Amino acid sequence: MEKVIWSCNDYSILRVDANRLHDVAQFVVTQNYNHHSPESIPDTAQQEIDEIYLEELSYSINSSCFIVRNNDGIIVGSIRVFRWDKKTPTPMEKIFHISPLEKVQDTPQTSFWHIGRFAIDSKSGFSTITLFKQLMILAVAPILREDDSYMIAETDSHLLKVMNALGIETQKIGNPLNYLASETIPICSNKKGLIKFYQRCYPLIAPS
Fold first, then answer.
1. How far apart are CA 73 and CA 12, in angstroms?
2. Could you give the CA distance from residue 81 to residue 118 in angstroms, rounded to a whole number?
3. What angle (nearest 5°) sits at the alpha carbon of residue 192, between those of residues 191 and 193?
4. 140: closest CA among 93, 205, 53?
5. What angle do CA 151, 160, 130 make, to 5 degrees?
6. pLDDT, tens digit, for every residue of 28-87?
7. 13 beta partners
């Protein structure tokens, strides 16, 4: 299932269900190698696609996944957010062996939301910054609805600089590792660190 969340003359942003998760996994892996590796996509990429698909499937009950399709129906962007149950291993734990509960002050009321699978096709012809802002607005929206909430994520070092420049206040909670062909850093951000970005950029997806 795909549901249009926002659209313009050139592309649409859609919320998708589990039936599209393999397509998302393939898009994310392909774009990461296209962006960060001068070599052709390795044979091992298919294994990475399958692993990411199965991982996303395990989170799908509590997750929201968004994609961007151009007018030809081709995926040119993606992002996913899920509410962590504080039990199921997160990508952060699997990749960095870091538990957010050990890095962030946790109470029974604290909620953690993992944002991941962000990717944009830089050759799409659309502004990558605008697409990033629009997708991030959708991803952080549920975090801002709760009083004591945190975003957790693993982000490419270059994207992290962009996030900070856009006013998203983040905290590094571990050392970087090479993941999907790029230097990746585990980060978190509380509600206060996200609200200014959201308020400033929300008009980009506000109904006309």
1. 9
2. 10
3. 90
4. 205
5. 90
6. 999 988 876 666 777 788 999 999 999 999 999 999 999 999 999 999 999 999 999 999
7. 6, 68
First-last CA distance in the chain: 25
Nearest by Cα to 197 from 174, 160, 168: 168
HEC sequence for the chain: CEEEEEECCCEEEEEECHHHHHHHHHHHHHHHHHHHCCCCCCCCHHHHHHHHHHHHHHHHHHEEEEEEEECCCCEEEEEEEEEECCCCCCHHHHHHCCCHHHHCCCCCCCEEEEEEEEEECCCCCCCHHHHHHHHHHHHHHHHHCCCCEEEEEEEEHHHHHHHHHCCCCCEECCCCEEECCEEEEEEEEEHHHHHHHHHHHHHHCCCC
Q: What is the Cα–Cα distance from 28 to 85, expressed in whole angstroms?
A: 24
Amino acid at 114: H
State both tokens at 132.
């990033």
Q: Could you give the C-alpha distances from 153 to 9, 47, 98, 140, 207, in angstroms and in order?
A: 31, 22, 11, 12, 28
> Beta-carbon neighbour count of residue 62 at 10 Å?
13
> Which residues of the chain, if any, have pLDDT below 50?
none
